[in-house]
Amino acid sequence: MTTTDDKELIARIQAGDTAAYRETMKRYGTPIFTLIRRIVGSREDAEELTQDVFLKAFDRIGRYRGESSFSTWLYRIAYNCAVSKYRKRKREMPFADETAQERIPDTNAPWQGEDASGKREALLSALETALSRLPTEEAMIVSLFYTARKSVEELADITGYSASNIKVKLHRIRRKLGTLIENIQTTEL
């Protein structure tokens, strides 16, 4: 999919072409849904939020100026929808020892190195659990970076933070994930 394809679709949508609307939903629906589901956990909530994202996007399609890619613009709407919906339900970090994250260097993150198959599966399970325990905004940022493969600059566009702030947030989130994984693995032993 190219920017030209997106520009053509946007122009067709603005002209009232419902087939272009369906094509855009077909193109971006699954990635948006997958991202939101990863954050909110519930399939039903993710479906509702995905619909909200597309309704808002098409309601505001006339405001899209092309300063960023269409997918970045759409992810920004998804990010804002998910964060605002779940800001009311702020999840607290289950840290018994908040200083533990300061003791974990980035280079020794528990998911690095060679693992046996069973150990790798346990680690992936711990990572999924840790991701589910992150506050919504942090989970969105890390998921957009690693799952949707958005660059730091695109994340800055999506979230409204500066690129340097995104780098700091990603660093802190990785450390927090390391601590969470360590705590999860310790409690499972």
Describe this structure in words.
This protein is an all-alpha fold and 189 residues long. The protein has 2 domains: 3-87, RNA polymerase sigma factor, region 2, helix turn helix motif (Rna Polymerase Sigma Factor, Chain: A), CATH 1.10.1740; 98-188, Orthogonal Bundle (Arc Repressor Mutant, subunit A), CATH 1.10.10. The protein has 8 helices and no strands. The chain has helices at residues 3-14, 18-40, 43-59, 70-87, 117-133, 136-146, 152-159, 163-188. Helix 4 (70-87) packs antiparallel against helix 6 (136-146). The radius of gyration is 18 Å and the shape is elongated. Mean pLDDT is 81; it is low at 91-112.
Which helices and strands, and how do they pair?
Elements: H1 3-14, H2 18-40, H3 43-59, H4 70-87, H5 117-133, H6 136-146, H7 152-159, H8 163-188
Helix pairs in contact: 1-2, 2-3, 2-4, 2-6, 3-4, 4-6, 4-7, 5-8, 6-8, 7-8
Listing every helix as H and every strand as E from the N terminus to the C terminus, the arrangement reads: HHHHHHHH
End-to-end separation:
46 Å
Which spans have pLDDT < 50 for at least 5 consecutive residues?
A: 91-112
Assembly state of the chains shown: single chain
Report the β-strand fraction as a percent range: under 5%
* The top level CATH class name of the largest domain: Mainly Alpha
Q: What overall geometry do the principal axes of the alpha carbons give?
A: elongated
CATH architecture of the largest domain: Orthogonal Bundle
Any key phrases for this structure?
elongated, Arc Repressor Mutant, subunit A, Rna Polymerase Sigma Factor, Chain: A, 8 helices, mainly alpha, 189 residues, single chain, 2 domains
